[in-house]
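Input (structure):
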């Protein structure tokens, strides 16, 4: 793998409360959030890509570790920097 692919695959720990707060601030249900992720990714790449409502629940409720690329998808839906959505102990991969 190249360095960019390695970085995208690196697992990080999101701040689930921050994700939930931003979603609630926008008045989005989990399904609306999944669609917002798809729209943001399609707008930037021309390809539809999103996450499942189950994964979103894992992120929000358990700070479930996810690949950095997935964190970028979530951040794009909020139009924010992915770093803003990391837990304080963000990276779980060495």
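Output (sequence):
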């Amino acid at each position: 793998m190249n360095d960019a692919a390695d970085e995208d695959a690196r697992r990080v720990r999101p701040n689930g409360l921050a994700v939930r707060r931003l979603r609630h601030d926008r008045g989005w249900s989990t399904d609306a959030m999944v669609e917002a992720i798809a729209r943001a990714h399609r707008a930037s790449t021309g390809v539809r890509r999103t996450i499942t409502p189950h994964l979103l629940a894992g992120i929000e409720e358990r700070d479930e570790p996810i690949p950095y690329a997935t964190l970028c998808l979530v951040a794009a839906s909020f139009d924010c920097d992915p770093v803003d959505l990391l837990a304080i102990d963000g990276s779980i991969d060495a």
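Notes: Strands lie at 11-14, 66-67, 86-91. The mean pLDDT is 91.
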